[in-house]
Design goal:
This protein is α/β, with parallel strands linked by helices. It is about 35% helix and about 20% strand. The chain binds nicotinamide-adenine-dinucleotide (NAD). The site of nicotinamide-adenine-dinucleotide has 25 residues, from helix 1.
Length: about 400
């Protein structure tokens, strides 16, 4: 029988609810402890998993039964929480973006190295099977080299309930920190080359949500290939229309019924406290008991339209496979439905911690993605192309 990896969770918010169906159903994982300042989330977790709960992260990291921690606290705490886990010798899966500055990212990597623990950054959508399959197809050489990648995602991100810092770029708010981290990861995964420069524009056109709600970025790679990434979180057009109305989490969506829902719901929040309370309804805890739980027969997670143009075909990852547009014909390279959503995250985490397999989504990987996200903000501000290190 597989020995389960004993995980402690730091931060029982929205991100945790999205990983919960994975953790709760994958036999390779045992949830043994959690920490969160919200008492109702702690109470729920203790009951649901018959597990230990703590108010602060340090006590959780000191728990001798915890072998690895999943850090899903707000961005600004990631650096302190990773360093704390490393001090206590715990392996780490930290949510994206790994940090808000390059220096913090470097400190996290150094702390992990010094403590000899594994540091992985995720979940990001580059873990999703359709992207991994597309990469394997590119690697097979059957379609020639990748020359260009286009990634396009339109969502309602900015109108989902938010904490104040999520709407303040200086504190890590806006779609570049939170959403480009996914899109850049996917593009880097498929390009399999080092990014050399970024030219970008960002959009901030709702004074009531005063942060980046949109961006478009061009990335050059050292092998001559290039990528174009566009994101809008302004809740108008929705790229799920291009994905057969399969949602980001693989859930079927009703296009008409869901149209305008995020904006409408947000109108009920008349104060910051109201909005935080609304956000917590989508998080783990008593208020969030009805938060989305993945069921059977879902499609794969996705992050909008992605097309990798190779010399002899365009490859388009989809929720059920990869569509190949070749010279003579097009066909769907079908993927089985996921038994456990996001199980690819556990594949990588489990192999890294239990068998010492070097993870793809390492600290260095996360840092390279963060560098591009920061370059998007810098290029938009200065009006210049930003060279990457
Ligand atoms: N990969 C994904 O699909 C995905 C989705 C959503 C969020 N995220 C990431 O997860 C992180 C959290 O975002 P969220 O939307 O879940 O926020 P959230 O506000 O819903 O949840 C954060 C949780 O952390 C708790 N918390 C705050 N301070 C803490 C501390 N010091 N110690 C322990 N817990 C603490 C909060 O009480 C809350 O329960 C962010 O970095 C975000 O980018 C990833």
């Amino acid at each position: 029988m597989t020995e389960p990896l004993k995980i402690g969770v730091i931060g029982l918010g929205r991100a945790f609810t999205l990983m919960l169906p994975t953790f709760a159903t994958d036999p390779r994982i045992a949830l043994v402890a959690a920490s969160d300042p919200r008492p109702d989330a702690r109470e729920c977790f203790a009951q649901e998993f018959d597990a230990r709960v703590f108010e602060d992260a340090e006590t959780l990291c000191a728990d001798p039964d915890v072998k690895a921690v999943y850090i899903a606290s707000p961005h600004q705490f990631h650096v302190a929480h990773v360093k704390c886990a490393a001090r206590h010798g715990k392996h780490v899966l930290v949510e994206k973006p790994m940090a808000l500055t390059i220096d913090d990212g470097r400190e996290m990597i150094a702390a992990a190295k010094a403590a000899n623990i594994k540091l992985l950054v995720g979940h990001s959508h580059s873990f999703d099977l359709p992207y991994l399959r597309t990469r394997a197809m590119i690697r097979s050489g059957a379609y020639g080299r990748v020359r260009m990648i286009n990634a396009l995602n339109f969502t309602d991100f900015l109108y989902r309930p938010r904490r104040p810092e999520e709407l303040d770029t200086k504190a890590g708010g806006g779609v570049v920190f939170s959403q480009a981290a996914h899109q850049v990861d996917i593009v880097r995964l498929l390009a399999e080359a080092s990014a050399t420069s970024v030219r970008a524009f960002t959009g901030n056109w709702d004074a009531a949500r005063n942060t980046e709600g949109a961006y478009t970025a061009q990335i050059k790679f050292d092998d001559g290939s290039f990528a174009s990434l566009t994101y809008s979180g302004y809740a108008h057009f929705d790229t799920d229309e291009f994905m057969g109305w399969s949602g980001e989490l693989g859930q079927p969506r009703d296009a008409d019924a869901s149209y305008g829902r995020a904006r409408q719901a947000l109108q009920k929040a008349t104060s910051v406290a109201d909005e935080i309370a609304m956000k917590n309804v989508r998080a783990y805890g008593i208020a969030g008991r009805d938060a989305f739980r993945a069921g059977d027969n879902l499609a794969h997670n996705h992050f909008g339209l992605v097309i990798a143009s190779c010399e002899r075909a365009d490859l388009r990852p989809l929720p059920h496979g990869v569509m190949v547009y070749g010279d003579q014909k097009r066909h769907l390279d079908e993927l089985p439905s996921p038994n456990i959503p996001r199980s690819e995250v556990i594949d990588e985490l489990y192999d890294a911690v239990m068998s010492g397999v070097p993870p793809l989504h390492s600290g260095e990987w996360g840092l390279a993605t963060l560098e591009i996200c920061l370059a998007i903000l810098e290029s938009a501000k200065t009006g210049r192309e930003v060279e990457l290190k």
